[in-house]
Amino acid sequence: HVQLVESGGGSVQAGGSLRLSCAASAYTACMGWFRQAPGEEREGVARVNMLGTLRYADSVKGRFTISKDNAKNTLYLQMNSLKAGDTGMYYCAADNSWACGGTWDFPYWGQGTQVTVS
Predict the structure, then answer these.
(1) Which of 62, 90, 63 shows the shortest CA–CA distance to 79?
(2) What are φ and ψ of residue 114, in 5° steps?
(3) H-helix or E-strand containing 77?
(4) Structural contact between residues 62 and 9, judged by C-beta atoms closer than 8 angstroms
(5) Which residue, among 78, 76, 82, has the nearest Cα to 24 in the 3D structure?
(6) Chain centre to alpha carbon of residue 61
(7) What DSSP state is assigned to residue 82?
C-alpha cells in the first residue's frame, strides 16, 4: 500500500502560479493529479505513466506541467496562469500495477490540498 501526502496548495490571485508536491512512501510507477471543485465531480488533471508519457486535461494544457522525481518518490504539478476555474481540492494518485498509466483509474489516493484562485 502506497501512502501519498500532498502539499503546496494555497490562495493565489488569477494569473498567479503554484507548485504542488506529492510525496509517496515508496516508488510508484504511475501517478496523477486530480481536482474536485465544490459541487462537481472529481476530474483528472494530469498523469504520467511508467515510461514518462504525460497526459493532460484539455483545460490545463499549456498552463500546467506534471513532473516526477523517482529519486525522491515525489510528484509535482506546476500550475501557471491560474484561473478562478482552477479552484478546488487537488489530489495525488498512484498505481503500481503492471499496466498502469493508460487510464485515469488509480487505486491509491492522498488526502488533498486546497487551491483557491480569486
Answers:
(1) 63
(2) -85, 135
(3) strand 74-79
(4) no
(5) 76
(6) 13
(7) -
